[in-house]
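Q: what sequence does this backbone want?
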């Protein structure tokens, strides 16, 4: 076997130009495929991060009627026993109580719809890290009676820190809720959509304002990732009974899941076309090599070399060509993609505006997940192995007399 490998390696470099051209085609295919996959997975990861880390968490517990009709009337009592029950699961990192509502935010003659979040400041910061995103003023403290608002909302309403914000909404069981709140801080929210509409209040202040004492609309349950979420969800679905329900972020945001799946399917088609081009490039080289060396093969078989051994050498040559392209492609794509992951590409013009309209940051993000690289390596290796069948079949069908005459 060692002799076959040495022969295959030496044969490759008997025609360096042909070998390098083929390896180059595989190299660029791997590079482009890895780059495209990284860009796709990076955008998916950012979408999920915005949904999970800056809003929903991986799971939420609600009243069973809340998600279909997001009314404060479908809230439930703050229950420490329920929170302790959720925290008992080993993969649960923390549980965050919230009271959410919607209302009109006003200043002078300006008015805009807003999302109102009643939060426990230090607990909420564990998930969203919003304390570090304060662009002006200060973050909420326990028992604060002011608000922190998105700086996009502040710009629209022409508000600054220490100005007064008027909020008008409907409280618990239809009571009218209107109040004036000092703007304690402005937050640069990672979601452009939230940045234009978010209002954070301390939980007790929000409960009092909405006439919903000791009420919550959700308990955000956070875990390490999707795998941990799937394991924990199975247990929680069995434990959480009516009038409560537990939902994963995928159930709460099905449009995000559908968008990722449809876009990923489009990416598979593009990569399939790229792989077909690579496959024909390798196949063309192998066919040309077999045709050029037919007389050589005839001589080798005539002097006693077994056809099976010759076929094995040619198969190894094909694998070597694929491996060289894979290794060089991965070697170049690794540092390139790691640099891109650290420095997302900013988008401008209409593309940036479109991204912001959909609630996403106007950047092109990249992923350094291992599957970005090994998927390309395995795909090209399989293609090379399949193409390697051709020289085996061709060699086994060689007629020595015809080959010598060729």
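A:
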């Amino acid at each position: 076997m060692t002799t076959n490998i040495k022969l295959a390696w030496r044969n490759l470099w008997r025609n360096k130009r042909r070998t390098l051209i083929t390896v180059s085609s595989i190299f660029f295919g791997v590079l482009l495929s890895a780059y495209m996959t990284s860009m796709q997975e990076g955008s998916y990861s950012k979408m999920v991060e915005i949904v999970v880390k800056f809003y929903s968490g991986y799971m939420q517990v609600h009243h069973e009627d809340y998600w279909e009709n997001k009314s404060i009337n479908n809230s439930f009592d703050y229950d420490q026993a329920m929170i302790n029950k959720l925290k008992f699961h080993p993969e649960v990192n923390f549980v965050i109580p919230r009271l959410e509502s919607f209302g009109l935010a006003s200043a002078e003659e300006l008015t805009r719809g807003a999302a109102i979040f009643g939060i426990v400041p230090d607990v909420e910061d564990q998930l969203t890290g919003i304390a570090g995103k304060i662009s002006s003023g200060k973050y909420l403290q326990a028992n604060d009676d002011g608000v922190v608002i998105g700086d996009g909302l502040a710009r629209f309403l022409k508000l600054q820190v220490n100005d007064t914000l008027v909020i008008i909404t409907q409280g618990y069981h239809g009571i009218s809720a209107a109040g004036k709140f000092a703007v304690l801080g402005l937050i640069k929210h990672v979601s452009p959509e939230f940045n234009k509409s978010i209002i954070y209040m301390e939980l007790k202040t929000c409960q009092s304002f909405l006439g919903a004492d000791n009420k919550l609309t959700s308990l955000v349950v956070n875990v390490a990732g999707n795998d941990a979420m799937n394991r924990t969800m199975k247990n929680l679905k069995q434990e959480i009974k009516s009038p409560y329900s537990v939902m994963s972020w995928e159930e709460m945001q099905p449009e995000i899941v559908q968008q990722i799946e449809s876009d990923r399917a489009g990416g598979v088609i593009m990569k399939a076309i790229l792989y077909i081009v690579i496959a024909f490039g390798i196949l063309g080289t192998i066919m040309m090599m077999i045709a050029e060396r037919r007389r050589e093969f005839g001589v080798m078989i005539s002097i006693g070399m077994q056809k099976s051994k010759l076929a094995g050498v040619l198969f190894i040559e094909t694998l070597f060509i694929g491996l060289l392209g894979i290794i060089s492609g991965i070697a170049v794509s690794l540092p390139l993609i790691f640099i891109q992951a650290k420095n997302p590409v900013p988008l401008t013009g209409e593309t940036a505006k479109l991204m912001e309209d959909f609630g996403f940051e106007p950047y092109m993000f990249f992923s350094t997940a291992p599957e970005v690289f090994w998927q390309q390596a395995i795909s090209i290796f399989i293609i090379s192995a399949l193409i390697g069948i051709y020289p085996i079949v061709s060699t086994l069908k060689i007629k020595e007399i015809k080959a010598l005459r060729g």
